[in-house]
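Hi R.,

Here's the chain you asked about this morning:
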Amino acid sequence: MRSTAEVKCGFSPDLHLFQVDGGYLAFDVNSGSLHRLDEVAWHLLQRLVCGGDWALARQEAARHFPPDVVDEAYRELQELQEGGQLLTKDQGWEAFAPGGELGLKALCLNIAHTCNLSCKYCFVPEQLRSGRDLMPPEVIRAALDFLIRETPYEFLTVDFFGGEPLLNLEGVKLAVDYALERGKEKKWKFTLTTNTSLLDDEALAFFRRHNISLVLSCDGRPEVHNRYRVTGSGAGTSSLVERRLKRFFETGGCREYYVRGTYTRSNLDFAEDVKYLARLGAGSISLEPVVAPADRPYALRYEDLDRLREEYFRLARLLREWEASGCRVSFYHFDFDLKGGPCVAKRLTGCGAGYQYLAVTPAGEIYPCHQFVGHPDYRLGDVREGITNPELRERFRRAHLYNKKPCRSCWARFLCGGGCHAQAALLQGDLYQPYPLSCELMRARLEAALYYMAQGQPGKGAEEAAAAS
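And the predicted structure, written out as tokens:
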């Protein structure tokens, strides 16, 4: 069972207490430290949050536990506090403003707006998906010239997105070759997201030769995948995708990849889909909540939250069970580093959409990210002309978590970075107001991730986890 500590007299935005499976966990927000507590230490911290005074907390705890045990727990908590690992204070970044030094570092090239599938939950506007737009060579070159011209960085990223990027494989090849030639002094990272239906040996050979990271779309079990990921005629695509994935794994995969699925209200038991993907051979998996207006039948609802929280914790237990049997499967959202952590700017600004990360359409239009494409109010400029709407870019630059009121007191703020800009703007109607349901889901997922981390270090793994389910 899982529960979050309910402290009726208030809560601390700098200390998050929660219980899982009878254990007690404390996450120190400002230091990023995670602690497993005994019941006495847990009780002391709860009372401290209520009263704000150690003496009162110790006095209250002594009513329930032997005084010498309370004193020992108090000394241990004091040592953690003195060591900067517990009850640390917010560093006061309210006046933070990303400076010009945080320049452009990544482009998402919508290399093909067209797609050979017709996924029912796709966020790409229908008028874009139904066209035949492929990014032409002149736009590809202009986009990369724009990136090289505008960036202050040595390390650059290009994401190939769509639609279905493999419908323009020649454009992908051109972009990679041009970037490596035009930007010889740069260090390049390329990623490509594909529905895998066109992932043949020719494409794989090119991706492996250039160490291109792949995001391979599959929602999981056949009945789940076929519900929404269909062809234009409505036919399911699970059998084709399964064959492509098996071929990918059997031939060695690639150095960096993950299989990425979307879960909806139709499969709140998404841990079963992780099992399915692991049985196929996937060692790196991500399942994301669907992004959809509330009136869509597959959209997640507030009444689903308790079920989803429990499912994330069930997944955490499942992954640890696999590891105990020698099988290591990486779940994207459970693998992050609390000790090293991202830099301050990353913690405060999240993805950097709108100024560090931009999306380019086949016509050369620039948007803050791929989810804004097709929404003309969010057009930033053109790769030939550059940024023509600097006021909008500045709005995104300033959309860090201290300028988002709900984020300031959220315990997950430094792990989340302020939430998805596109969901805030397109679903909530305000770039500076995170979408509340997404916030609840994020906190549930992060609690499960912290629980997963508290269970110990990942084990040395085999390539598959089929036998451990």
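Confidence is low (pLDDT under 50) at residues 457-469.

Let me know if you need anything else.
M.
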